[in-house]
Amino acid sequence: MKTRKMNGLTGKVLTSALFAGCIALGAQGTELTTLGDSSAYTLTRVDAKGENTITKFEYDASTGTMNPVYYRMNMKDVEYGTGDYQTVKTVSTPQGDFTVTLNHPSSDLPKTYEDKVSSGIFADSFGLTHDDIKEDNVEIQGIFIDNGQHYIGGALSYVNRAYIGANLIVSNINADFIRNRVGFDCNFGNGGAIATVIADNITGNFIGNNVSEYDTWNDDYIIKGNGGAIAYSDIKTLKGDFIGNASGYGGAIAMSNIKNLTGDFIGNYAHSIAEDTQAFGGAIYLDSASRLNSSSDLSITLTNSSFYLNHATSENGEAKGGAIYMERGEITLNSVDGYTSVIAGNYTESSGVRDDNAIYMQASYSINDYDIWDNGNIIPAFSNREEYIPVLTFNTETSGNIVVSDKITGEASYLASNNEGDVEAYIAAMDERYSSSYDGGSFAGYANKQGYDTIEEYVEATYGRTLERQAATAGYVIETTPTLPTFNITSDGTGGVYLYNDVRGLDVNLNGGNVYLGYDSVLDNNKLTLNGGTLSMVNNATGEMSLNLLEASEETSVSIDVDLTNKTSDKIITSNESTGTVTISTIN
């Protein structure tokens, strides 16, 4: 950072105050991004993929396909404030360096609070908390750069403590958040820029914020925690780009409700180093309900937004969801007004093994290990199991398109509907646990050492429940039909969803619109329900779609390839009994 006095010059004010519309695909040269002039970056079309390039797609009417085109991305230098003094900072991101110029009338950075408006240049400090403004429904304007807190909200939060129980309530935020940090000396922080904030509107870009822990041995910061930019917040409208933010769970956003977000997610990442640690959700992470509203699941709705080059990397453990990881809640991606949303170049890397997975959805359930009193009645613990099914929705309207060139993966939840515990599996696990001669050599031997003749007697005396119930409570259940995460595709009938990579392990529902498959096996191993619209398997090659289950209505049509020379055609094969009618509408 350097500070100098400007010789009679007046700094130009460049903030992210204006939303300048949708993308404009064009020929060689500079292109508008999602947020137009308010975006944090520019794009220049190039002939080939290379360093700092992102892939977009253009529709070719002659072939009916989406074809890749390449753009070099450059971060935009930005300038804030007015005055004769100038502070210049250089900010590095995975997408390149840029400078931030802060103009101010004196050597001190300006900050004002008047008529419920807090404005200024908030830099190299602790940002803003409720202790600074002391009232709700204020408006915040300016820039937050290089601020930090120990526990939550490096730039903006309710308090600077390890406490998430009260919220900073604001009306509008018109500010950029650049290189703010949480976690100077704590084990697990939340929200590198914003945490515990309830806001009506936020307009601004989030660049290079992170949650990290200081490593005294190596004099460096280790990425971890939740939400590199935003965590535990509730926002009605947000317009801004998220670039190069980092944490352990949700490189950009974690555990938050956002009713409408427009902007691009580029180069955000989740990262973990320690043995057997996880990195989930390079851009977005949704797990249990937000502490802002513990009674309901979280949801994020995105409009005309894209995900490029985000990743989740665990050096010695498991990584999932290069762009998005969900265990519960809902994420909806809307593409409208001719815009093409793109999910491309996202990936995971687990212990050195790379996979081009963008979205990972994990169905799950919770178990209460204790009996519960309910109006004088005892409810067994296993009866208090609850499933959580994440829901992803792609929606196209008014000729909008969504193109996905990365994988979408689901993992099922097994919840025994008859509360039946798997006693054999439970005893086998306990046999392994008590295999040493000191412990008795087996579960039965351990029970004998504790003075009981049988395992059943030991379990009843120790846990107050039958062996079968204890097996179920411990998570050993006789598996029933799996419950899959849900992937919905909806549309007003215009535009389309183009899937160019594997979609696996999901309950896929086509509810109108047009879905185009890059190859016939894109949807293999899913449950597929067709409730209207068109599913196109046309790709100039015949092949098979192998489904777990297919349900179709007469309103749905399918387009297929036919090879008359070899007398073959596209096929749909199901491994379970399926129902409905499939109408062949187009033969290629």
Summarize the structure.
By secondary structure, the chain is mainly β. It has five helices and 61 strands.
Description:
The protein has 5 helices and 61 strands. A hairpin with a 4-residue loop joins strand 57 and strand 58. The protein is mostly beta strands and 588 residues long. 47% of the residues are buried. It is 6% helix and 45% strand. The strands form 11 sheets. The protein has a 26-stranded mixed β-sheet that branches. An 8-stranded parallel β-sheet has the order 15-20-24-29-34-39-46-49, with no helix packed on it.
Q: Which terms would index this structure?
A:
mainly beta; 61 strands; 6% helix; 588 residues; eight-stranded parallel sheet; 26-stranded mixed sheet; globular
Cα distance spanning the termini? 62 Å
* Uncertain residue ranges: 1-28, 369-374, 376-383
Q: Helix- and strand-based class?
A: mainly beta
Number of helices: 5
List the helices and strands and how they pair.
Blueprint: E1 2-5, E2 30-31, E3 41-46, E4 53-60, E5 65-75, E6 78-80, E7 85-93, E8 96-104, E9 111-114, E10 117-123, H1 130-133, E11 138-145, E12 148-149, E13 168-178, E14 181-182, E15 194-195, E16 197-203, E17 206-207, E18 210-215, E19 220-223, E20 230-231, E21 234-239, E22 242-243, E23 246-247, E24 253-254, E25 257-262, E26 265-266, E27 269-272, E28 278-280, E29 284-286, E30 299-303, E31 307-308, E32 311-314, E33 318-320, E34 324-326, E35 330-335, E36 340-344, E37 347-350, E38 353-355, E39 357-362, E40 364-366, E41 372-374, E42 377-379, E43 386-388, E44 391-396, E45 401-404, E46 407-411, H2 423-433, H3 443-449, H4 455-463, H5 467-473, E47 486-491, E48 496-499, E49 503-504, E50 507-511, E51 514-517, E52 527-530, E53 533-536, E54 544-547, E55 549-552, E56 556-560, E57 562-563, E58 568-569, E59 571-574, E60 579-580, E61 583-587
Parallel strand pairs: 6-8, 10-11, 11-13, 12-14, 13-16, 13-17, 14-18, 15-20, 16-21, 17-22, 20-24, 21-25, 22-26, 23-27, 24-29, 25-30, 26-31, 27-32, 28-33, 29-34, 30-35, 31-36, 32-37, 34-39, 35-44, 36-45, 39-46, 44-47, 45-48, 46-49, 47-50, 48-51, 50-52, 51-53, 52-55, 53-56, 54-59, 55-60, 56-61
Antiparallel strand pairs: 1-7, 2-3, 3-5, 4-5, 7-8, 9-10, 18-19, 37-38, 40-43, 41-42, 57-58
